Amino acid sequence: MGELIFYVIGGLAAVIGAVALDLIRDQAKASTPRIAEWLRRRAVKRLPESLRERLDEEWAALLNETAGPLAKLGRAIGFLFSTHVIVDAEVNENLALMLEVQEVMRVFYRARNLLEDSMRSRHDLSQENKIVIVSALGIFDKLIEQYHNGDILDEHLMKLLDELRAYKNSKMKH
Amino acid sequence: MAENPKGSEVKMTHATMKVLKCFLGQPRAELSGADITKTTKVFTGTLYPILLRLEAAGWLTSHWENIDPKEEGRPRRRYYRLTATGQRLATEAFNELGFVDGRLAWES
Q1: Hey, are the CB atoms on A62 and B44 less than 8 Å from each other?
Q2: What is this structure's pTM?
Q3: Which site among A5, A59, A122, B29 is 20 to 30 Å from A77 CA-CA?
Q4: Taking CB atoms and an 8 Å cutoff, what residues of chain A touch B43?
Q5: Which helix (DSSP H) or strand (DSSP E) does residue A129 occupy?
Q6: Burial class of residue A37, CB neighbours in 10 A (0-12, 13-18, 19+)
């Protein structure tokens, strides 16, 4: 008798378990695209502003043409990873640019000091110092060409560059 | 690393080479992100940083699909195409790495 009860309860548990698993699977199937879309939005939200609008639509199109809930989820996780890589690269690039600007500033101040000394002492610049100034201008021009963007080369730096050019024009032609 | 016309460098990683190889195989084709992942099997998470970098370097150019998303009921795809410079520099980079027709010279 005890054995029979055991089998009945076991059978019932198996049936209930199978139904519950089916329900969970259906629910997961239905929810996965929504989760994927949520992850996509989250990835887009964390992107740099300049890329947000573009990748929002581009990734929506890619998710739209991805068949199957699990594949959609995989893509969405990929978007999150992309965002991480893009943001990381941007931080590194900004750091590199900051160091580059600092180096340019250093060369600029050296050039300006040389010009000021020369003006004060009324002595002509040596050939070596002229080269330093021409190099400083060259670095600035290259930087401007590379990052022809007012946000990066701020007003202060542009003003210093004009100052250096003015020094060069007033002194070096002699 | 390969030089590019905008001054910075393109990192020739394995995934980047797969993407470039995909474009070099059909230099005039316009490919969406879905087309590229399908051909190269490069993970989406790796693909987009590569595409953005190659575009920023001037190797690729991109444009939106010419449809009205409301009419079509779906978002527009973005299509990527190899530029003439990209084609030249990618070919040079592959040659430098010892590739002939997309395969390592000593393999063929």
Answers
A1: yes
A2: 0.64
A3: B29
A4: 78, 81
A5: helix A127-146
A6: middle
